[in-house]
Amino acid sequence: MKRILEKIKAYNTIIIHGHKRPDGDCYGSQFGLKDIITTSFPNKEVYVVGEKSDYVDFVGQVDVITDDVYQGALSIVVDTAVQDRVSDKRYVLGKEVIKIDHHIPVDDYGHMRWVDTNFPSCAQMIAYFYHTFRNELKMTKQGAVALYTGIVTDTGRFRYRGVSRLTHQMAGMLLSLGAEVEEIDRHLSKETLNMVALKGYVYSNFVTTKGGFVYLKMTREAIIKYEVTDEQAASVVNLLSGIEGFPVWALFIEYPTEIRVRLRSNGPDIDKLANHYEGGGHAKAAGAKLKSWDDIKRFVTDVEAVVKRYLDTP
Ligand code: AMP
Fold first, then answer.
1. pTM (2 decimals)?
2. pLDDT along the chain (314 residues), means of 10
3. Residues 268 and 256 both lie in one domain
4. CB of 282 closer than 6 angstroms to any ligand 1 atom
5. Total domain count for the chain?
6. Ligand 1 atom closest to Cα of residue 289
7. Quick one: three-class SS letters along 16-82?
8. Which is the closest atom of ligand 1 to the Cα of 23?
C-alpha cells in the first residue's frame, strides 16, 4: 500500500480501469479511488475509463479519453483478476500498471500488485487504503458513496463470506464521511415492472438436476421478451440461491457471441471448475463461458461431480 501511495504521488496523470460488464464493486472501487486521489491531490488529472453501468451510474460517469493521455501516465486496474477481463485494453499504454484486486489471482499482470482475497470487496481495499493513510488523504461524500456501494453490493448487503469486523469498520468510516444508507439503498433497490416479470420467469423456468445443481437458461429470446438489459438479466442469479438440496446454482446468459455462466455455491468450491471453462473468480462465486448451449450437458456433469465429491467428503 505504501508503494502504491508513492506511485500515486509520483504521477501527474492516473487512469483507473475496471473489468468488463462493471458491477457495483468495480464502479465503487474506480470512483472511490478517483475521489480520494483528486480530493487529496487536486493538481493531478485522474480518469475513470471502461464500460458504462446503468445499475450503478449514480456512483459516477466514466471519462472518454484519447490515447495520448496515457503518455507517461499511471494505469491502475481495480477488481479485475485477469487481463482478458480488463475493460479498455489501453491500460497497457500507461508507463506503469498497478493491479488492486481481491479475486483469486489467475494471472499476475501489472508492474506492481496488491491482491488480497481476504477482502470481500475491492472497495473495502480502497477504503482500507484510505484509512491507513487517513492523515494525508482526503475523501468527499461522493467517494464515500462509491466505496459504500462497492462494499454492500459485493457482500450481498453484508451477507456473504468474508464480511468481517473490518468490513463494518470501513462501512462505518464511510458513513462518517457522508454516505447515506437509505439514499444508496434507494438506488440499488429500485425495480422496474419488467424486472418483476423477469423474476417470475426465473421462478417458473429454473431447472433442477438430480445431482444438486439448479440453473436457469437466460436466452436472448427471454431478454428481448422481457425488455430488460443484459445487466438486468444477469442480476437475477441469486434468486436461485439457498434452495435446500441444491448447494450450487447458476445463471447461463446468452450474449450475442458467447454464453456466460454466473456460478454460485454455498457448499463446494467452484472456482477450479470455472477455470476449465475460461473462467474463475472466488471459491463460492465464479464466472465462466460456454461456446454453445450444447456445452450445458458437460457443464452439469462437471458440477454434479464437484457436488458429489463435496457431499462424500466426511
Ligand atoms: P460474476 O458471475 O460475473 O459476478 O462473476 C463472479 C466472480 O468471478 C466475479 O468476482 C468475477 O470477477 C469473476 N469472474 C467472472 N468471469 C470470470 C472470468 N471469465 N475469468 C475470471 N474471473 C471471472
1. 0.85
2. 98 98 97 98 98 94 98 98 96 98 92 97 98 98 98 95 96 98 96 96 98 98 96 94 97 95 97 96 94 97 98 89
3. yes
4. yes
5. 2
6. 19
7. EECECCCCHHHHHHHHHHHHHHHHHCCCCEEEECCCCCCCCHHHCCCCCCCHHHHCCCEEEEECCCC
8. 4
